[in-house]
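Run log, item B.
One chain of 164 residues. Sequence copied directly from the ordering sheet:
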Amino acid sequence: MDWTVNRNAVLDYLKKYKFVILILLAGIVLLMLPGEEEKKEAPALVSQEITLQESLESILGEISGAGEVSVLLTQSAGEETIYQTDENTSVQENGNSSHNQTVLVSGSGREETGLVRKVKAPTYFGAVVVCQGADNASVRLAVVEAVRSATGLSTDRISVLKMK
């Protein structure tokens, strides 16, 4: 008899709050649907470095006499993002105090990101180029000049070696 009384109480409760329960279930289903993927910056930085290496390999392979080319770039500092900041300076009895705060921009939804003021390109430490035609001095010179132009490295930081 207790079971039927409890069952009737539960059914009455469900009838009374059926719309609330339906809305909660619909919300849970909507939360479980796949949405937009979040952007991740770290892979983008890695892909930019790889893209430059691949671009250099492709361009250097077009140099007359270079043949097959492989390129390795080493970075001394990666790409650096500088965000816009607001500086508040106040004069107090015991000296000046300043407070810097990053300017935030609201995106879609509740997402906030910093306002980018400038993006500094990565600085390279050195480059190693291995190519089939490296035994020819004019090919080595052309390869060194091309890498210097693309990366901003000085010629003493670029090594061109013969591929086996």
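Observations after the first pass:
- The longest strand covers residues 69-77.
- The first helix runs from residue 2 to 16.
Flagged for discussion on Thursday.
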